[in-house]
Design brief:
Layout lengths: L6 H8 L2 H6 L5 E2 L4 E4 L11 E4 L4 E4 L5 E2 L1 H9 L3 H12 L11 H29 L4 H9 L4 H6 L3 E3 L5 H6 L5 H4 L5 E5 L17 H5 L7 E5 L4 E7 L5 E8 L10 E3 L12 E2 L1 H11 L2 E4 L2 H9 L5 E4 L6 H8 L4 E5 L4 H16 L3 E4 L8 H8 L1 H9 L2 E2 H12 L4 H17 L3 H15 L3 H13 L16 H11 L23 H12 L8 H9 L14 H12 L7 H30 L4 H31 L1
Parallel strand pairs: 13-14, 13-15, 15-16
Antiparallel strand pairs: 1-2, 2-3, 3-4, 4-5, 6-9, 7-8, 9-10, 10-11, 12-14, 16-17
Helix pairs in contact: 1-4, 3-4, 12-15, 15-16, 17-18, 18-19, 18-20, 19-20, 21-22, 21-23, 21-25, 22-25, 25-26
């Protein structure tokens, strides 16, 4: 939590949440102070995520996530609060003091992540240095053969891992302890009781998590570089920090290992959550409002070098749901350009399914047989690739062509084609789009449209659709919302002894908070309402408006507060606040009338004195409710 006087508070006062969130989410102006976009924390096709520029907080009306700039960075980067403060400070260029943590475990994890980032930065520099050296000549020759020059070497920080098990380890051990290097994913090791066996050129054994968690016995462990004699492609996170590597072997013998070797998952790298080149491509994706998605890193680099800077690649894994959500934060339009071979076609189909479920507008670029994007650009040039990009197919046209090519036009073939297409249609969120697709498929495959629609209806009915519960906001009256907004507008703390209404100080500027406080504290109009705890918390502590989310609340009440403050359609006025107070009086009056009626029925005239008192109270309440209603009508007519 950012408190006045501490470093986090200083950072927060200088941070513009719209700019910070805008680095992760494509925002559009949605009112005087609001910006909206697709929520990065849950899948959605229409924007329900809002950022309030004045109050400096965000709220999603779909999943309920809300908070300030630090909460957002914490949640989206999956880091601790101190790390989020540090990240925002770095974005602002603020000098960072030593940070503190809530627990030793939190401090240890954060320190490990920080050190691992430093290790990868040093390793990247080391690989770049070796690429420039004489021993990197074969790597430079390979890269030149792939159409890359010095400019691209530097742009993507490409390097070379020498054919040695110890050079990188010796370099890094000068700065980092061995137990941390073991966590980096850059090294392998195995037990060596003889202490004499050479490890150069040997293959690492699989190390269990239990073994990794134990403090290694250094004299009996031989640690050596995982990447040897490989062209090194750094994998960066969204902010451009190196978090992993892919190494392409230059060896041709049987002991070379896999052609491409990827870093294992570490405390800073999860391959299913990373898109290669996102840090360099995200601005172009926002500007052009579409992304080009390719399979491999070389494909990505070649397309980027040809001038298409909105290109991304999956990072050492098949395309995942998390990657689809990550991409959706920047644009919902994508051109998928995977290899046209059998494996590439299947990868394309899996990827299309995930993108369809996330409601992307998808096109498919299919190049000639035998050409991946890298080879196509080198052989035919960037203009030819640009033309192919413009002629990309709608994704269902691609799937229908695939179905027609794979299955004959016989009755059995039509069944197989339909079974092939049905899972893709089933994933489409919109019923209208599904209906249009079924009509198109029935025409192109010669299947009766009524039969197809029935099959589709049956398939879709089997899907389990999770629905969000109606938010608490829908259970709150407009009067409660107005008074909550009034309380949140307070600019200074007001002690419980101050009972001065705005009417008693009419010469001063209207203060909606003081007016709401006076009515709620003196009449307790909020008792028994869904917002009772929220209003009570606001009455006890009145922070500045930009710090309103610092009030200690249950998560549901905090989300409700954010949702109410995000919808400030009309300016607060004395009449609106007074009208809200009268509305709550009527609500409380009706509730009391209901309680009186229940008690009268229970008494059944057995207690004449109590019955008479209740009847008199009922008459008084009815008169008060009638007068309140007449006053409300009078104000409405005068307005």
């Amino acid at each position: 939590m950012a408190n006045p006087g501490d470093f986090a508070y200083t950072v927060k006062q200088q941070a513009d949440i719209v700019r910070v969130v805008g680095d992760y989410v494509k925002l559009r102006k949605a009112g005087a102070q609001n910006y909206s976009g697709l929520c990065p924390f849950h899948g959605e096709k229409t924007p329900s995520f809002s950022v309030h520029a004045t109050r400096q907080f965000f709220h999603c009306f779909g999943c309920g996530a809300s908070g300030d700039v630090f909460t957002f960075v914490q949640k989206i980067e999956n880091i601790t609060f101190p790390e989020a403060v540090r990240a925002v400070a770095q974005k602002l260029g603020i000098a960072i003091p030593q940070i503190s943590f809530n627990s030793p475990v939190e401090a240890k994890d954060a320190k490990l992540r920080t050190v691992l980032l430093e290790i990868h930065e040093r390793a990247c520099d080391c690989f770049q240095e070796y690429l420039r050296r004489p021993e990197g000549s074969l790597a430079r020759q390979y890269l030149s053969g792939r159409g890359l020059d010095e400019t691209m070497f530097k742009q993507f920080r490409i390097g070379y891992a020498p054919d040695s098990g110890f050079l990188l380890k010796d370099r890094l051990q000068r700065e980092f302890p061995e137990e941390v290097l073991r966590e980096s994913g850059l090294f392998s090791w195995k037990q060596d009781d003889s202490r004499q066996q050479s490890v150069i050129g040997t293959q690492p054994e699989q190390v269990t998590p239990e073994a990794r968690s134990q403090k290694p016995e250094a004299p009996f462990q031989a640690m050596y570089s995982k990447f040897r004699n490989r062209v090194m492609f750094p994998i960066a996170n969204e902010t451009g920090r190196v978090i992993a590597f892919t190494g392409r072997t230059l060896s041709t013998d049987d002991k070379a290992g896999p052609k491409y070797l990827n870093s294992p998952e570490t405390a800073i790298y999860s391959k299913s959550r990373v898109l290669f080149n996102l840090s360099q491509a995200k601005e172009a994706i926002r500007k052009l409002d579409y992304a080009i998605l390719v399979e491999g890193q070389m494909d990505c680099i070649s397309v980027f070098a040809a001038g298409f800077h909105n290109v991304l690649a999956s990072s050492g894994t098949a395309f995942t749901e998390l990657q689809a959500k990550l991409l959706g934060r920047f644009s919902k339009n994508v051109v998928v350009n995977f290899d046209p071979d059998t494996a590439g076609a299947k990868a394309t189909e899996r990827t299309l399914g995930l993108l369809t479920e996330e409601d992307f507008q998808i096109k498919v670029l299919t190049l000639e047989a035998g050409f991946d994007p890298d080879l196509y650009i080198r052989r035919k040039g960037k203009d030819a690739y640009s033309d192919a990009l413009r002629n990309s197919q709608r994704y269902f046209d691609y799937l229908i062509e695939r179905a027609r090519a794979q299955f004959p036009r016989s009755a059995e073939g039509k069944v197989k084609a339909l079974n092939y297409l049905m899972p893709h249609i089933q994933r489409v969120p919109s019923r209208i789009v599904r209906d249009e697709l079924s009509h198109e498929i029935s025409q192109k495959l010669g299947i009766d449209s009524a039969v197809l629609r029935q099959e589709l209806k049956h398939a879709v009915s089997k899907r389990s659709v999770s629905e969000l519960k109606a938010p608490l906001e829908n259970q709150v009256t407009d009067a409660e919302k107005i008074l909550i907004r009034a309380l949140a507008s307070a600019t200074e703390m007001q002690t419980s002894e101050e009972r001065i209404s705005s009417r008693d100080r009419a010469e001063e500027e209207f203060d909606p908070a003081r007016q709401a406080q006076f009515a709620l504290r003196s009449e307790r109009l909020h008792e028994g309402l869904a917002t009772e705890l929220l209003i009570e918390a606001l009455l006890k502590e009145q922070p500045e408006s930009v710090e309103i989310l610092r009030v200690e609340l249950q998560e549901g009440d905090r989300n409700l507060l954010a949702a109410i403050l995000m919808k400030e359609e009309e300016e607060l006025s004395a009449e609106r606040v007074e009208g809200a107070v009268r509305a709550l009086r009527r609500i409380q009056g009706r509730r009391k009338l209901e309680q009186i009626q229940i008690e009268l029925l229970a008494l059944k005239n057995q207690d004449p004195e109590r019955t008479q008192a209740l009847l008199q109270e009922r008459v008084r309440l009815k008169l008060a409710l009638r007068d309140a209603g007449m006053a409300s009508d009078s104000i409405a007519n005068s307005a």
